[in-house]
């Protein structure tokens, strides 16, 4: 049984949403997470849900990294924060995975500084599941590394492929390199070099993919640096927000469209769900010695329960060991990490 | 009166759409473009529209750069192509601007190699008008330069500001730097350096903006390198396509939603128009000795007529001179262009 350290203080609505999520994970998935946080506040929430406090192991943490705190300073100053304490449980082998909807910068920093990189990994990468025409597309890096080398992009491709094989049930995931054109000489220096390395990397590399192909559904793993990936992802969120907002304005301008919108409610909800799916899914931080999964700050109890289930699946699939085994032996590992 | 060289052979449906566009520009805007292309084919199209061929000046070009040709090779081999001949009209002072919906790579190359950079400009940039909540947002570079320096990004900010002042009627355009977070130390090395330079640049710099703010309507000019900008722009197009496609699937799954969609037709068309607007607008290539405007390959006659009108407005506004005057005197000009 996977042991999961769950940051009970992380997220906009913590600890209410987190404790409710832990309870839901126990009831729906039989999954008993280790609750890390301010004990009295956790107990209050458990009681409010009529759950006996000895149903869960609670590991006490004295402070909380706020959502808008500068990550590096927060980690230095708050050694007893729920994020650091939960990361230490993983480091010390008392937990296999860490799930948190807290400050994502602090979580990435704690992943590297407390848990540590898996053997063979140059840099961990943050992955995101996006809705696509036929099942989700996995994109990485979406924000862990703003300056990348070509070797790092190759490692992201390997880690993304393993993730989609093991957790996405895709047999031989196709990998595309996000770029400005299909031809191999397209892109900036970094991407031209990465293209060449990917061709020799052993992943199922299908070539460059442009921005409009991310959601088209033909690529399982989209590889990019964390700067480009983060901007592309947020630009996509912006379009969805813009479209729903403008459509609402259009609907409110006439009675006929209002009636039409009511009749179309099912179709709209279906589309909303596809976009929410991405927001609800936890983002795995890949390439550490233990599995870290980062939830959206706005995650509700159900999203967090799903996040805990994903963590369990990742541990059961042996994701961390599989990635380390693959990356120890890839050529990319021959080069040294380049420090910024 | 602005003299505009119009590539009659450029675009998926040329010369039918281009000649029809030129005729529409003459009728709607009183704008008599110089038609550049294979004379016999242009004359055939004019006759099909019942227009006398002496209504237009036709400049003969013997060949056509196809949409999928490699730009550099095409320019070398097709010195008599409509793109090169039209660019030479601008170079020789016989035209003030060039409008084409042809091969955009070849147009950018012809802009630099034939027309040449305006004094003070390190690299020209391609701009795009995007639909936003309150009037369009101008984003640049969206694809002319895949490797940029911080000084180039500052010049893009200056050129974008002048464009929105002169053609967007925005008095003091706000400029945002596309980035992964608001804080000044966010981003990769290039963007951290650009942020510092922009603060001292004299443009109305409001700081970093994230991807979801591009369409939010609070920023007039969004500055980025051409690699990031191109990927973000196409990712945004991909979301719009995905959303319309998924919604159509949802609508077709029930009679009620079909009826609803009919009632909502006006609202949908309004939203479609906002997205089409971006596709219909010509993209200005800024920073050359003459104004070049690049239309989408799928542009129809009306989009091309609008493109010709935009070219006229750009010439009337003295855009080229204004940019050159501003950039000759900005500090960014102190550094030398860095060749890839």
General description of the model:
- The structure is a homodimer of 340-residue chains.
- Chain A has twelve helices and eleven strands.
- Chain A is an alpha/beta fold.
- In chain A, strand 1 (4-7), helix 1 (16-29) and strand 2 (34-37) form a beta-alpha-beta unit.
- Chain A is 47% helix and 14% strand.
- The two termini of chain A are 39 Å apart.
- In chain A, helix 3 (71-77) packs across helix 5 (104-115), helix 4 packs parallel to helix 5 (104-115) and helix 6 packs across helix 7.
- In chain A, strands 3-2-1-4-11-10-5-6-9-7-8 form an eleven-stranded mixed sheet, with helices on both faces.
- At the A-B interface, helix 8, helix 9 and helix 10 of A face helix 8, helix 9 and helix 10 of B.
What keywords describe this structure?
homodimer, 340 residues, alpha/beta, 11 strands, globular, disordered C terminus
List the helices and strands and how they pair.
2 copies of one chain form a homodimer.
Chain A (H helix, E strand, L loop, with lengths): L3 E4 L8 H14 L4 E4 L1 H10 L9 E3 L10 H7 L4 H10 L5 E4 L3 H12 L9 E6 L6 E4 L9 H17 L7 E5 L10 H11 L4 E6 L11 E3 L2 H27 L2 H9 L1 H16 L2 E4 L4 E4 L6 H16 L2 H11 L11
Parallel strand pairs in A: 1-2, 1-4, 2-3, 4-11, 6-9, 7-8, 7-9
Antiparallel strand pairs in A: 5-6, 5-10, 10-11
Helix pairs in contact in A: 1-11, 3-5, 4-5, 6-7, 6-12
Describe what is shown at a glance.
Two copies of one chain form a homodimer. With 340 residues, chain A is of the alpha/beta class.
